[in-house]
Design goal:
6 helices; 38% helix; alpha+beta; six-stranded mixed sheet; 31% strand; disordered C terminus
Length: 182
């Protein structure tokens, strides 16, 4: 079997698991979002963001960054995954709590990958992310919209310093000044 065939089969297995899953309680909601997170980051099926984020979602990120809706979240995620084409996430912990007409969903995962392509920080460095330091944590409100469970509000943060440092060349202008400031 060719590598591309294996990658495709793996991706389709995740997609099939999502389609077969019936969200009926906290555990099944957690599994649904775990599978979608894997599909988006590990398989680069970035369009799946439109399945799990509302068009009008309010997304509050680290350092005061605000994103409105699934489309802005998709663009932001595309910037990250394009800088790390081999990015993989590992779910460390996740749980959901039933709340009124929806759920509160908490996710904690780590990211690994190598900066192999141009990013918002400049040319590729070929440096790997430190997966122990590159974490993401998220607390989201999830509601059923048009038959789909979607994030309507999220507070999330990535280890942006680890991502920036990995994407910044050692000899980049300002890198020495940043090192002195640390």
């Amino acid at each position: 079997m060719y590598r591309a065939d294996k990658l495709y089969n793996d991706m389709m297995a995740v997609d099939t698991a999502i389609k077969q899953l019936k969200v009926e309680d906290e555990a099944s909601l957690v599994e649904d979002f775990r599978l979608y997170t894997e599909l988006i980051f590990n398989h680069k099926w970035i369009g799946s963001i439109y399945d799990i984020y509302s068009d009008n979602a309010d997304i509050y990120r680290e350092n005061g960054l605000y994103l409105h809706g699934a489309h802005e979240m998709m663009k932001d995620t595309l910037k990250l995954t394009s800088a790390f084409p081999d990015m993989q996430v590992t779910m460390r912990d996740t749980f959901a709590v039933k709340r009124d007409d929806g759920y509160k969903l908490w996710r904690y995962y780590t990211m690994s990958g190598t900066n192999k392509t141009y990013s918002i920080y400049g040319a590729a460095t070929n440096k790997p992310l430190n997966s122990d330091a590159c974490i993401a944590m998220s607390m989201a409100t999830v509601k059923k919209i048009s038959g789909r469970w979607q994030i309507v509000k999220e507070f999330t943060m990535y280890s942006i310093d680890e991502i920036r440092d990995t994407c910044t060349a050692e000899d980049a202008p300002g890198a020495a000044a940043e090192e002195v400031a640390k």
